[in-house]
Design brief:
This protein is α/β, with parallel strands linked by helices. Strand 3, helix 3 and strand 4 form a beta-alpha-beta unit.
Length: about 325
Amino acid sequence: MQLSLLDRARTRAGEPDAAALTGTVARAAHAEQLGYDRFWVAEHHGVPGVAGSAPAVLLAAIAGRTTTVRLGSAGVMLPHHQPLVVAEQFATLDALAPGRVDLGLGRSPGFTAPVRRALRSTEENDFAADLAELRAYLTGSAEITAYPRPTSPVPMYVLATGQGLQVAAELGLPVVVGGPLLGVAGDPEPGLAALAGYRRDYRPSEQAPEPRVAISLDVLVADTTAEATDLLLPEAWAMAQARTTGAFPPLEAVADIRARTLSPRQAQYVDQTAAAAIAGTPAQVASRLTELLERTAAAELVASSSTHDRAALAASDAALAGLLGHQRADR
């Protein structure tokens, strides 16, 4: 099983947005030192809590600070871009970091209505057709040639919901699955059925002869359960604010959140976000991950963790790498 990190360049209260980006680059370099297989970045627009709006640009900066770890987008939101432009951007990245670049693609329309208008988002996009067109540019089989020409096609991944799994199966593309589909905090059966359908209906492609599933969720490791709960709190509080106010804010310090009086609804959302994550001591995390990985037969774990304290996050990254590194060595 491969082990990866997904970093959304989360902003912190009281810090300039630029600190989120430099923090992401530093985290990627640390991930390489720890032996992570891949480092993913995401695309969000008009979200005050996220500075990661330009995956190709951020990955170029990370490529300049790393030499071995694979670099991926999780993902580029294809409805916001012309397939040719995406192909050119990632072919350029591949030329700068040969053989290390992966292109994950999603279909999110945008966080709010003003953002969707600014992105010129419509419901007319054909995600499957855009994926096929993009792959044709990357493989050199399109009507026109995308430059620079990759020495080998940049691997493509689909960030999949139920419908996305069907599209990926039809096109023969690997998937990254997260959130409710994993059933971490609820009924796992619908997600397992969707994954079984993806594997059953998979049409082999030259890039990916076999179906491949990566699972993505928050995973945080600490010395004690209480410390792990604190690591989860900043992201859980941000999600609670997003659901009650409509704004997804920067991460706040744990002490500042503890000093607040949360409404019953906010407390409920905090608990829901925490339940959908895997956090605890090394033994607790190992047990839950083993069950999840066996249930999903995933080939890759993508830890999409974030917290306010960068040093604590770095320690969690190191603990997770050590934990799964030992498991992989045992196998």
